[in-house]
Each structure stands twice: as structure tokens, then as C-alpha cells.
Amino acid sequence: MSLKVLVVDDQGIVRAGFAAVIDAEDDMTVVGEAADGAAAVRLADELSPDVVVMDVRMPDLDGIAATRIITGRENAPRVLVLTTFDLDAYVFDALRAGASGFLLKDVHASELLHGIRVVATGESVLAPSATRRLISHYASAPERRTTGGPRQLDSLTTSQRNVLGLLAAGLNNAEIAESLGITVGTVKSHVNALLRKLGLRDRVQATILAYDLGLARPNPPGPHL
User: Fold this and answer.
1) Fewest Cβ atoms nearer than 10 Å: which of 81, 102, 200, 208?
2) What is the pTM of this model?
3) In 3-state terms, what secondary structure has residue 41?
């Protein structure tokens, strides 16, 4: 079954280029194209894509605002944000708006296609190095953190909290498994359980919540035994 993709970019030639690359894949189909955020919101409702490839800077309704609207709806598609500008503000805003990944527009075609496939499965396309860069900046902005957060973690077991802290520090499943002395399969089970309990859609949202609640730190803690 082909992944249905909606491509959103205000530059026609860029939009067409992305669409051509995506449509050439056997497992993907471009179901629509939009030149601005308002059209993206409308087409996301009409076409029910699996993934929206979203530009950030667009007239009228920008990609961040459009992402927030689209991901806030029931049975929302995953959003992969692409931008020319590698600015931390864009990264933070996109991920907090509900995007499942963030890539630069000069990314190789194979990386774009891989990113679409990854976010479609509910994962993030942020590499550990990129995640750690976000963490470093996020940790230096305490005003972003919320208060009264521990209550949101009451439903998690100690093991799930440990996994959340390491996940938020940018470790992949294999690294988390090695750090905690458990199997990769157990890590996956803990990740799925904590996402479900916290009402989160993916690892990106889990990372953001962990920092909002002060659970994660730039140097991840070891397991609480």
C-alpha cells in the first residue's frame, strides 16, 4: 500500500521537484500539492495523506501554524518539515507544533524519502546529533519549562522514566538498551507504553515533554535503581 504524501511549498519549482522525487517511488504517491499553509490545512482534511512534507516560510499561514492545526486534528497525518533555514527557532517551533521531523531542503533525495518513510511509522527523523543540539539549546532556556509537571509522569514506571530520559538525550533504542542493560525489544515496549500513557504521538514529542518537565538533562542520568 502506497504512502499518501501531500507536498507543501510556496515555490512552484521546489514543490514540483519534491513531488517528482516522491512520486517516482513505488511505495509513495503524491496525492496533492499546496502553495501555502491555508491550502495545506484544507487539503490535509480532504485528501487524508499519511505524511505532509511542509515548508516553513509561506505567505498568509506559515508552515508552523499549519502544522499546529493539522496535527491537532483527529487521525492527523505526520508532518515532516523542510526549510532552507537551519535556525533553532524554526526547529523548536516546528517540533512543538507537532511535526515529527525536521530536515533542510538541500537534503539528498534519498534522505528525504527515508525521512518520509520513518515519520510514517511514527518515528522521528532527527539524528542523535541533531537531537543533542536541540537539547543543548533547550536546556539553556528554562523559561520554556512548565511547573507541576511531575504529576504527568505518575503513570510511568521507573523503567519507563529511565527510558524517557535517555530517549530525550538523543539515544537510539540500541544505545538505551546498552545503557540500561535490557534488550532492544524491551526498550521498544517501554517507548510504546510511555507514549501511550502520556498521550504522545512520537519520540519528538516525548523529548520536548521531558525537557518541559525537567526530567531530561544535557548529560542523561543513569538508571534509578
Assistant:
1) 200
2) 0.71
3) helix
Does the pLDDT value for residue 155 go beyond 80? yes
Q: How far apart are CA 161 and CA 81, in angstroms?
A: 28
The pLDDT assigned to 217 comes to 55
Assess contact for 51 and 78: CB atoms under 8 A.
Answer: yes
What SS3 state is found at 83?
A: strand
Distance from C-alpha of 210 to C-alpha of 37, rounded to nearest angstrom:
29
The CATH class for the domain spanning 137-212 reads: alpha beta
The total number of residues written for the chain in this structure: 225
Which helix or strand (DSSP H or E) is residue 64 part of? Answer: helix 63-71
- How far, in Å, CA of 139 to CA of 88, rounded? 13
d(CA 62, CA 131): 24
State the Cα–Cα distance between residues 177 and 33, nearest whole angstrom.
41
Q: Quick check: 110 and 77 in contact, CB under 8 A? A: no
* Cβ-contact 163, 180 below 8 angstroms: yes
For 102, phi then psi, to 5°, come to -150, 120
Q: Classify domain 3-125 by CATH number.
A: 3.40.50.2300
Sequence ranges of the chain with CATH classification 3.40.50.2300: 3-125, 137-212
Q: Are strands 78-83 and 101-104 parallel, antiparallel or unpaired?
A: parallel
Chain centroid to CA 45 = 20
Question: pLDDT per residue over 83-140, tens digit each?
Answer: 876 555 667 778 788 888 888 888 889 999 999 998 998 777 764 445 555 655 555 5
